[in-house]
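ok so for the tutorial part 2 we go from a plain amino acid sequence to predicted C-alpha cells. step 1 is just haveing the sequence, like this:
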Amino acid sequence: MVWGAISGLGKTKLVFVLVLSPGVKIHADTYREIILEGAVLPWAEENADSIDWRLQQDWAPAHGAKKTLEWCEASLPGFWTKNVWQSNSPDLNSLDYVIWGIME
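step 2 — the prediction. this is what the C-alpha cells look like for a chain of 104 residues:
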C-alpha cells in the first residue's frame, strides 16, 4: 500500500506499507503507528507547527477504528470527526479522485 498527503504547504513523502493479510489494505494499528505517528505528525511539526491545520481522511476501516479516532482526538489539534467532513466528495478529496486515478 502507498500513502501520501498534500496541502497548501506542500506534500509529504510517500509511505510504502507492506500488507500481509489478503483483502486488507492496512490495519488500524499499522495506520496509527506508521502513517499518523511516523509520517503525519513529523511532517506537521516541521511544516505546519505554527498554523491551524486539519487532517482529512476517507474513513476507510483503519481510519475510523475506535483506537484511531481516540488517538486522533488526543493527538491532532482540532480533529474533525466523520460527521463534520464529507469523505466521499470528489471536490474535497483530491488524492483519492485525481492523483490515485492517474496512478492507476
